[in-house]
Amino acid sequence: MRAMGPWDASEVDLADGVDRLDLGALRVTPMEGIEVQVQVDESTGQVSQLTFGRPDGGVQVQPYAAPKSGGLWEDIRGQIRSSINASGGLVEEAQGSFGPELRAQVRPADGGNQLQPARFVGIDGPRWFLRAVFLGAAAQPGAAADALETMVRGIVVVRGHEAMPVGSPIVLRLPQAT
């Protein structure tokens, strides 16, 4: 359900005067009250993760190369479901505003036992796939989810024309200083 975004670079005039952060594969329109955070892998210097955060929740986004035919989200949902079940979490598939999504209770990365809500969303675009993981209050319906979904819908994916293996991350980078 991409009729309301996120967008492919071929669908948007990137010189339209909208102030977007250039993160390489993604162009992001900042919104008041939402921080854009990048995590850099210290060993490679590459941006490893992009997070949009609010005090009550966040969403992690990552673009991947996909086949022209699309459909990568169908395969990835099964992998995510299996991983969550194997780690002792709970997961169910539901219909959301982006289409099929996984609503889950997952173990925190720090190894704690308290399950935390998470919502996994996948958006298939032309030769790209965008994964979004909504955390905290954004994993449930409400103001946090609405604001962060708006951020995700405003993303422009710049896939490029080079050949890439299906499922490989599309390179993100730190924004250039202006």
Comma- or semicolon-separated keywords:
178 residues, mainly beta, seven-stranded antiparallel beta sheet, four-stranded mixed beta sheet, 2 helices, 11 strands, globular
Description:
There is one protein chain. This protein has 178 residues and is mostly beta strands. The protein has helices at 72-86, 143-153; strands at residues 7-8, 21-22, 26-28, 35-40, 47-54, 57-65, 90-96, 99-106, 116-125, 128-136, 156-157. It has a seven-stranded antiparallel beta sheet, with helices on both faces. The chain has a four-stranded mixed beta sheet with strand order 1-11-3-2. A hairpin with a 6-residue loop joins strand 4 (35-40) and strand 5. It starts with 6 loop residues before the first strand and ends in a 21-residue tail after the last strand. The model has no long low-confidence stretch (mean pLDDT 90).
Element-level helix/strand string: EEEEEEHEEEEHE
Structural class, by secondary structure, is mainly beta
Shape: globular
Distance between the termini: 35 Å
Which strand order do you get reading across the main beta sheet?
4-5-6-10-9-8-7
Quote the average pLDDT: 90
- The proportion of residues forming helix, as a percent range, comes to 10-25%
Poorly predicted segments: none
Give the biggest sheet: 7 strands, antiparallel
Report the radius of gyration as a whole number of Å.
Answer: 16 Å
Total number of strands: 11
Number of helical stretches of at least 4 residues: 2
Portion of residues in beta strands equals 35-45%
In short:
With 178 residues, this protein is mainly beta. It is 15% helix and 37% strand. A hairpin with a 2-residue loop joins β9 and β10 (128-136).
